[in-house]
Design a protein that fits this description.
The structure holds 2 protein chains of 2 kinds.
Chain A lengths: L3 E4 L2 E4 L5 E7 L7 E6 L6 E5 L3 E2 L7 E6 L2 E6 L9 E6 L11 E5 L1
Chain B lengths: L2 E5 L2 E3 L5 E8 L8 E6 L5 E7 L6 E3 L7 E6 L4 E6 L8 E7 L12 E2 L3 E5 L2
Parallel strand pairs in B: 2-11
Antiparallel strand pairs in B: 1-3, 3-8, 4-5, 4-9, 5-6, 7-8, 9-10, 9-11
The chains are: A mainly beta, B mainly beta.
């Protein structure tokens, strides 16, 4: 099975900060990497699919990039509504494993 | 708009069975693969199973293989999860989610239900 290692597990940031979250796959997954946002008590929401494609309706401050087996989610200017937990997921091959999550908290 | 509504959760004893359902609306259900993902209390997301648009392709996580079965009824716009031999560690919120592809060739989840809680306890 492909393991997804997400870092950091949590971070504190201020409104307006640039935030980066990283996900590393245990083997090549091409660009089959997706990012989700989850707020407490809510279902996850798709942000980025196939590493770099922005889901419809998601603000352009969210972006994704890839380099080999390393993937990054960047929030260019953190907004109050962005405080949440973020998960990566690989969909190269089943089981479609998620990373452990990154909780973004207010500094 | 896409709407997914899960039902069937509740409290069940270890070793017993439970069947979850997810009713879909707002899109052509028979054209898309569907998934179930769960989240134990205070924990992260765990993908557990996927089913292609026509039921021909099924995938399971090792943690549920042989105990859980995914199925769909395209005439009723419903995907189901039959859960047998339940364990305490199956306690979680269970989400159904839509895949934008037919044969799970994409695999990402572009719409989610609100989830249903399954609690396994004696």
């Amino acid at each position: 099975d492909i393991q997804m290692t997400q870092s950091p597990s949590s971070l504190s940031a201020s409104v307006g900060d640039r935030v980066t979250i990283t996900c590393r796959a245990s083997q090549s997954i091409s660009d089959y990497l997706n990012w989700y946002q989850q707020k407490p008590g809510r279902a996850p929401k798709l942000l980025i699919y196939t590493a770099t494609s922005l889901q419809s309706g998601v603000p352009s401050r969210f972006s994704g990039s890839a380099s080999g087996t390393d993937f990054t989610l960047t929030i260019s200017s953190l907004q109050p509504e962005d405080f949440a937990t973020y998960y990566c997921q690989q969909t190269d091959s089943a089981p479609f494993t998620f990373g452990g999550g990154t909780k973004v908290e207010i500094k | 708009q896409v709407k997914l509504v899960e039902s069937g959760g509740g409290l069940v004893q270890p070793g017993r069975s439970l069947r979850l359902s997810c009713e879909a609306s707002g899109f052509t259900f028979s054209s898309y693969a569907m998934h179930w993902v769960r989240q134990a209390p205070g924990r992260g997301l765990e993908w557990i199973t996927s089913l292609s648009y026509d039921g021909s392709h099924k995938f399971y996580a090792d943690s549920v293989k042989g105990r859980f079965t995914i199925s769909r009824d395209n005439s009723k716009n419903t995907v189901s999860l039959q859960m047998n031999s339940l364990r305490v560690e199956d306690t979680a919120v269970y989400y159904c989610a839509k895949d934008p592809s037919r044969l799970v060739e994409y695999g990402f989840l572009d719409s989610w239900g609100q989830g249903t809680l399954v609690a396994v306890s004696s």
